[in-house]
Amino acid sequence: MVQSLALALEGGPMQTSCLVLLMVMDIVCGLIIPVYETLYYLRYYRATRQYSSKLTHWTTYWIFFGVLHLVQRVLYWFPFSYEIRVIAILLMAHPRVQAGLSIYNFLVTNPLLTIKAIDARNRLREHIDKVVLPRISNFRLYS
């Protein structure tokens, strides 16, 4: 973000103002409003002990918010990575779009992906039981 700000300052006033507007949008819509909404629904849940789908929405938002920040740190050299992250955060934070819940439903509750993950785990267990453990049991550190 600092590198893109430095490049924008070299580009001229229009580019600088667009980047500053994008940063303000990122901070307000991607951080301040979600923090307020999350704290509001946490307080509501603690007071009433009633489940709210909004609490799930904001929980998944924060999970994917962290993932997006990590991905952007790794792919900082990719053109428009900051802009793509801001758009994804806005889509996840929007109460009608709820892109975070859509990603969660696809990745976590998708039965085909769940079956493939369970199958991979079982194959890994078999490999460990048949190949790795016999080799380790025959290994001696001191003779």
Number of individual domains: 2
Count the helices. How many?
A: 6
Count of distinct strands: 0
**What level of helicity do the residues show?**
over 70%
Radius of gyration: 23 Å
Uncertain residue ranges:
none
- Distance between the first and last residues' Cα: 57 Å
Mean pLDDT comes to 82
Give a description of the structure.
Helix 2 (13-48) packs antiparallel against helix 3, helix 3 runs antiparallel to helix 4 and helix 3 (53-74) crosses helix 5. The chain folds into two domains: 2-98, no CATH class; 110-143. The longest helix has 36 residues, at 13-48. The mean pLDDT is 82. With 143 residues, the chain is mainly α. The chain has helices at 2-11, 13-48, 53-74, 81-93, 99-107, 111-138.
In short:
The protein is an all-alpha fold and about 140 residues long. The protein contains six helices and no strands.
Which secondary structure elements does this structure contain, and how are they paired or packed?
Elements: H1 2-11, H2 13-48, H3 53-74, H4 81-93, H5 99-107, H6 111-138
Helix pairs in contact: 1-2, 2-3, 2-4, 3-4, 3-5
Task: Sum up the structure in keywords.
143 residues, mainly alpha, 83% helix, 0% strand
